[in-house]
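Subject: design request, 409 residues
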């Protein structure tokens, strides 16, 4: 007889990206010809881990107390303030005047997602996810005792499918009298799609419509890759301004990832940020999510918070310049990928910018094994494979497209 509890017996990670990444790294350590296109981390054109110099400077500036002392469960208030300023930029004063802001420090963006699922849905409820997604959303939901429904990400014109999004929101509203939806934008994982301003207007209209009768709605905005948007800092945040037009029955929760923005992948630092017109919803947000954070991870990395605070305070301009360079790396690889894909007639889902691109294929697990045999590691999805542009050089992009096209054909 197993010692596991009844529910725990069903737990089994499938298609674990971290495990596949570990296998790829081990293979590459034995063979330089291996292309590791698995985990979403940024590497330079020499195949070396891309380290932000400002982040390293900031970490060296910190005192022992700033590195290693306990933080409060919700996190340091100055960390919160610097995040607000980074995310909302020139619009921060307007946001403060019109909205209520709250923040909980979390272990990566994943902690923000887990906290949100836990506190805004009841056991057995469903969260609404995109049909093409970071599959760990599902595992996080299942860990909270939740199910999930999906909306088709793309319509027939390869644009955001607001028609299906609205239909699925209405169905969930009818079945469980509340709706929690996840939108990962810009640079969506796994497709690299980025929604237009007009598409976001459609989403805002949909959420306002279904909540007008008092139905509680939570928009979980996974903004992990926002600082790699090809449009730059200001344009990437135009949709965030639209959140101010949501009615008081809709709360936006922003999941910020220090892993992605600052390359602090292993430090596991992020934030769960509440944006709402309702003061009571803001109070409830802090009460419930602080409680859950204390119960799940107790406190978040003081070192991670201090590095972010220091970078955004003392090295902001210099850091922005480094981010511009990182964006340029991705843009060059993206352009290379699209040129090579066109040359080899390799189809892919709509891609605008970001770490990943997704290629549809049948029997993705079989394709994954065949690619491994050719020394190319990718992430298998349902009827698709994900190629990570952030971790491979231009030369490897060209080689990868050629190998993939040959195997899929």
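Subject: RE: design request

Done. Sequence follows.
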């Amino acid at each position: 007889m197993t010692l596991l509890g009844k529910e725990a017996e069903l737990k089994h990670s499938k298609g674990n990206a971290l495990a596949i990444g570990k296998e790829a790294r081990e293979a590459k350590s034995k063979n330089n010809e291996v292309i590791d296109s698995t985990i979403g981390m940024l590497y330079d054109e020499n195949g070396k881990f891309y380290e932000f110099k400002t982040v390293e400077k900031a970490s060296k500036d910190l005192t022992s107390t700033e590195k290693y002392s306990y933080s409060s469960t919700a996190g340091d208030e100055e960390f919160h303030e610097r995040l607000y300023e980074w995310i909302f930029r020139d619009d921060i004063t307007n946001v403060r005047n019109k909205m209520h802001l709250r923040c909980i420090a979390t272990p990566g963006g994943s902690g923000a997602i887990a906290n949100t699922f836990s506190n805004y849905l009841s056991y057995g409820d469903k969260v609404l996810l995109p049909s093409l997604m970071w599959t760990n959303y599902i595992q996080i939901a299942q860990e909270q005792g939740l199910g999930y429904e999906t909306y088709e990400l793309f319509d027939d014109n390869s644009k955001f499918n607001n028609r299906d999004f609205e239909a699925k929101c209405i169905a969930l509203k009818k079945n469980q009298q509340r709706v929690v939806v996840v939108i990962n934008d810009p640079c969506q994982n796994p497709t690299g799609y980025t929604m237009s301003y007009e598409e976001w207007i459609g989403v805002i209209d949909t959420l306002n419509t279904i909540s007008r009768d008092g139905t509680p709605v939570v928009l979980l905005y996974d903004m992990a890759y926002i600082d790699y948007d090809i449009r730059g800092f200001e344009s990437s945040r135009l949709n965030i301004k639209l959140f101010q037009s949501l009615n008081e029955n809709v709360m936006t929760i922003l999941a910020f990832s220090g892993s992605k923005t600052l390359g602090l992948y292993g430090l596991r630092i992020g934030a769960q940020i509440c944006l709402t017109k309702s003061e009571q919803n803001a109070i409830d947000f802090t009460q419930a999510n602080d409680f859950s954070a204390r119960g799940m991870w107790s406190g978040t990395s003081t070192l991670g918070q201090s590095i972010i605070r220091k970078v955004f305070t003392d090295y902001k301009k210099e850091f922005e310049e480094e981010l511009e360079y990182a964006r340029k790396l991705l843009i060059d690889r993206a352009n290379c990928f699209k040129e090579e894909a066109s040359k080899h007639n390799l189809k892919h889902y709509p891609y605008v910018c970001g770490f990943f691109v997704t290629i549809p294929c049948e029997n993705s697990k079989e394709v994954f094994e065949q690619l491994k045999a050719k020394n190319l590691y990718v992430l298998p999805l349902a009827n698709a494979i994900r190629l990570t542009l952030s971790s491979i050089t231009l030369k490897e992009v060209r080689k990868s497209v050629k190998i993939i096209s040959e195997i899929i054909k």
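The chain has 17 helices and twelve strands.
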